[in-house]
Amino acid sequence: FIEAIKREFDRFDGDGSGAIEYWEFCQLLSNLLGVHDPAGLPDNRVRSFWREIDDNGSGQIDFSEFIPWYITYFDTTGRPQGTSPLEEFYKKIRPVPFPICAA
User: Fold this and answer.
1) Domain spanning 2-92 has what CATH number?
2) Do 65 and 56 touch, CB atoms closer than 8 A?
3) Which keywords does this Swiss-Prot/TrEMBL entry list (predicted)?
4) CA-wise closest residue to 62 among 23, 27, 10
């Protein structure tokens, strides 16, 4: 199981540094979510994911940071069939009220 997660990590560590930088993380998210148009991944959501995964604030993600994040959002074991990998993520986001526009 961990070996499969390590393969995913290595696949997106494009420069082979042993860590995933932000630009690699953006590619990783696009690929894992099947979003081929960058506009389909709002930057604020990507940054929110980044802050969540980069536990130590180093600006890079090491494998120990990647494991729990990947399991939370992309491991399908035990996930109800038909649910999106992002459902848990969106549940954690505080709703932002929008002002009501008067006509």
Assistant:
1) 1.10.238.10
2) yes
3) Calcium
4) 10
Closest CA to 38 of 48, 23, 53, 50: 23
Tokens in use for 3?
């070996």
- Please give, one letter per residue, the 3-state secondary structure of the chain: CHHHHHHHHHHHCCCCCCCEEHHHHHHHHHHHHCCCCHHHCCHHHHHHHHHHHCCCCCCEECHHHHHHHHHHHHCCCCCCCCCCCCHHHHHHCCCCCCCCCCC
User: pLDDT (tens digit, 9 = 90+) per residue, 22-76?
Assistant: 999 988 888 888 777 766 778 888 898 899 999 899 999 999 999 999 988 887 6
